[in-house]
Design a protein that fits this description.
Layout lengths: L2 H16 L4 H12 L8 H17 L1 H16 L4 H7 L1 H22 L1 H7 L3 H16 L14 H13 L7 H11 L4 H30 L3 H30 L5 H16 L1
Helix pairs in contact: 1-2, 1-3, 1-12, 2-8, 3-11, 3-12, 4-6, 5-6, 6-9, 6-11, 8-13, 9-10, 10-11
Length: about 270
């Protein structure tokens, strides 16, 4: 992989991570067009995902600080965590994020090799983009309510959607926001939760890959490629979050279904 490839793939990752069009799917398809081999090493994919993680951290910094403070408060009064869960909105949000992260963490550990193999099959990715398009299109049947409050059950359902999105071609943001809407959560709230719940899973995967890089060693050139890809994903990811929030506010979320269906069908036919 060249530095230019890393830059382009990083931009693609950032733009598509939060737009509901599957970042991993686009990485595979664009990599296939560039002739970049996506073998069983997912290091580059993990690190460009880390770039988008940093864009979430910047975007929702105040929420993250509030969550950390609420958990620190709970640690000082462990006998009153149930009461704090009922009264502290940010503590509830933090617990729900942790619960929602469990399914993807379990699937990622148990099926790492199978997931890696999926990155080598662009035809599968194109098919899964069609599935993503259908998931987005069916949100027209959802009936979100301003009175609907997020619960642990809803968080778990959204977490299962995130686990499903480990398959390249299934949009993580698209499936999780859609799952929230199917559970009658307002799109704006579902998007916020979707962005925040990505942090633990991506952080864990990045730490595992960093440990591998340290133990096995890597070249300076490889580190440069990782840095460029990560930086490009960070900048474009921040832009994508802003764009998606505006699209959701205008009620145009389902328009991304058309894009996924078109790209997926063309990919199935042409690849």
């Amino acid at each position: 992989m060249s530095y230019f490839d890393a830059l382009l793939l990083g931009i693609v990752q950032g733009l598509t991570e939060f737009l509901p069009v599957s970042s991993s799917g686009h990485l595979v398809l664009v990599g296939h067009l560039l002739g970049v081999q996506h073998n069983s090493d997912l290091t580059f994919e993990v690190f460009v995902h880390f770039g988008t993680l940093m864009s979430v951290a910047v975007m929702y910094w105040h929420d993250l600080v509030a969550i950390v403070r609420s958990f620190a408060k709970a640690s000082l009064h462990p006998l009153h965590v149930a009461e704090q869960y009922r009264q502290d909105e940010m503590y509830r949000l933090g617990v729900q994020i942790l619960v929602a992260s469990v399914p993807a963490g379990v699937i990622g550990v148990l099926f790492e090799e199978d997931i890696a193999a999926a990155f080598t099959d662009p035809k599968l990715v194109a098919t899964m983009l069609v599935v993503t398009g259908l998931i987005l299109f069916l949100t027209r049947l959802a009936r979100p309510s301003p009175d609907r409050q997020q619960s642990l059950a809803v968080a778990l359902a959204v977490g299962c959607a995130q686990a499903f999105a480990i398959i390249p071609g299934i949009s993580r943001s698209g499936s999780t926001i859609s799952a929230g809407m199917y559970c009658r959560i307002l799109p704006e709230r579902a998007a916020r939760f979707s962005f925040l719940m990505s942090l633990p899973v991506i952080c864990g995967a990045t730490l595992l890959k960093t440990e591998e890089l340290i133990s096995t060693g890597t070249t300076l050139d490889s580190l440069g490629i990782l840095f460029i890809g990560t930086a490009a994903a960070f900048v474009s990811g921040y832009v994508a979050i802003r764009v998606l929030l505006q699209v959701i506010a205008r009620g145009k979320f389902r328009l991304f279904a058309v894009y996924c269906l078109v790209v997926g069908i063309f990919g199935i036919i042409l690849i």
